[in-house]
Design goal:
about 525 residues, mainly alpha, Growth Hormone, Chain: A, 4 domains, two-stranded antiparallel sheet, 4 strands, MFS_dom
Length: about 525
């Protein structure tokens, strides 16, 4: 899903060069500026040299320019995007784990995510055993996601109004109590499908507040310099639990029944709450809470509408979330109707995608904070790979392509989460993250039935082909719209050693500040 620098939105906070001898790009205007900059007095702190906007590739620097390797005190290079967001180079795959508070949070999430996956599998199996109907399983999923579709924006408003750590303790405790209730009813044999629907709905209501709060809280733990890495590690954490949780749930269901899976999930929330309580408040970076006023929801929507660097990534996330991520329906169809394999090989398809997602999360953790071109490129690759997977001739080629789909899908997921958080002003972050959760996961009750109907009517291959085509078309369209908003043009350069395809400024008259910032973010 970090406090932005003090510079207001639309302004740049560029530190002047230290001295006339500071090496910079051979540009006339910047060279003249460097030669007229006074030399600091002896003993004074030497400001960092200017980093040209958009300079995110060390291979593009001239030999005279200092790098982090040659200048240890300089740190990773960055450029400033909208609202002063810093788009930095990589600092290490696990750099955010150096932050003590985040280590506690990460450890608790490992336990909790595993328990949540155990409950998800046990819940679906319980409903199927009670009703014998796959439709009932779909209703359970819809009940859990419906509150996000209807109330997701209000959860973001609460995240901006209340202390996030305290709010998370409440929501995590409520989830634990719901798991206790479902475990007790299952173990005593009084549970019915209607009760499972009710528990799923209540869990969805708590999630409406928990998800945007948890995502926005990451920036308060690690700050902007580690935010992208922390988001990527959270995704890796979730995908690891996705590999372990279902396997443990299967063993528990076979040995002692679904109720014990719910009970262990209830215990897993103790780890999260303990980690939150153990954090040092002095090391957090809380943002000022907004007072309770009317119109704050509309203010959040207006804020996004006026920011093309936020609006269009959210539009892309809505298409990817609604159509691209419908794998439960599609993979079941491929397993049973296309490749005619059993439940074991169906499980391997899910494992292949989870492994790809884990690889994508770890790859994202190695990179710096994302840019819009990386975000849209990952979405385009995701859609095209889905189209290729739809045409896979056999089971194993399909599994391999699913692994690549997982890599690109998770890369997009972490990129959009990190970018939106960094580009949003701190006092608006909860509402914007609530909107991201709404468009990314709230579309499931709409997209899943539609994709299911296409799959039933025309087959799984057509269903996956349609999902991939919609995702790729949305990525290409949003990429072109963003380039136009930033006044960029597509350049194709076939000379050796040059980037073959790149977006470059159109040139001409001076551009408005917002357009320059958007070009930097691209």
């Amino acid at each position: 899903m970090s406090a932005a620098p003090a510079a207001q939105r639309g302004e740049k906070n560029v530190t002047p060069p230290a001295a006339a001898s500071t090496a910079i790009r051979p540009d006339d205007s910047t060279t003249r500026a460097a030669t007229t900059t006074p030399v600091p007095a002896a003993g004074a702190a030497v400001p960092a040299p200017v980093t040209p906007p958009g300079d995110d590739d060390p291979c593009e620097r001239t030999a005279a320019e200092p790098t982090a390797a040659s200048d240890p005190g300089s740190g990773p290079r960055d450029s400033t995007g909208p609202t002063g967001a810093s788009f930095t180079r990589p600092t290490g795959m696990f750099s955010s784990l150096r932050v003590r508070n985040y280590r506690y949070f990460f450890a608790g999430q490992i336990v909790s995510n595993t328990g949540s996956w155990m409950q998800r599998i046990a819940q679906d199996w319980l409903v199927l055993s009670l009703t014998g109907s796959p439709l009932a399983v779909g209703i359970t999923t819809a009940m859990q996601f419906l509150p996000t579709l209807l109330l997701g924006l209000f959860g973001g408003v609460l995240a901006d109004r209340m202390p996030k750590r305290r709010l998370l303790i409440v929501t995590q405790g409520a989830m634990g109590l719901l798991a206790v209730g479902l475990a007790a009813m299952t173990m005593t044999g009084v549970v019915t499908a209607s009760w499972v629907y009710a528990f799923a709905l209540l869990l969805g209501l708590v999630t409406v507040v928990d998800t945007p709060t948890r995502q926005a809280f990451v920036s308060e733990m690690v700050g902007p310099e580690h935010l992208s890495n922390a988001v990527s590690l959270n995704a890796a954490n979730f995908q690891t639990a996705r590999l372990v949780g279902p396997a443990v749930a299967g063993l528990l269901i076979a040995a002692v029944g679904s109720g014990w899976a719910f009970a262990l999930n209830a215990l897993s929330f103790v780890a999260v709450i303990a980690g939150l309580l153990a954090m040092r408040s002095s090391e957090l970076r809380p943002v000022d809470r907004i007072p309770r006023e009317r119109g704050q929801l509309r203010e959040g929507l207006r804020y996004v509408r006026e920011r093309p660097d936020l609006l269009w990534p959210l539009v892309l996330a809505s298409f990817i979330g609604t159509f691209g991520f419908n794998f439960p329906t599609l993979l079941a169809g491929f397993a049973y109707r296309t490749f005619h394999v059993g439940p074991g090989q169906y499980g391997l398809l899910n494992t292949a995608m989870a492994l790809g997602s884990l690889a994508g999360a770890l790859y994202a953790a190695r990179r710096g904070n994302p840019r819009l071109r990386w975000l849209t490129g990952a979405a385009l690759g995701f859609g095209l790979l889905e189209v290729l997977a739809a045409a896979a001739p056999g089971y194993w080629s399909f599994a391999v392509l699913l692994t690549l789909v997982g890599v690109f899908g998770l890369t997009f997921n972490t990129a959009v989460n990190s970018f939106v958080q960094l580009a949003t002003e701190p006092e608006m972050r909860g509402r914007v993250m609530g909107l991201l959760v709404l468009v990314f996961t709230g579309g499931t009750p709409v997209g899943a039935p539609l994709v299911g109907w296409v799959t039933d009517a025309y087959g799984p291959r057509v269903g996956l082909l349609a999902c991939g085509a919609v995702s790729a078309l949305a990525a290409g369209t949003v990429g072109l719209v963003l380039a136009r908003c930033a006044d960029l043009r597509l350049r194709v350069d076939l000379h050796r050693g040059s980037r073959v395809v790149a977006f470059v400024p159109r040139g001409g008259a001076a551009e408005p500040a917002r357009r320059r910032e958007l070009a930097t973010a691209c």
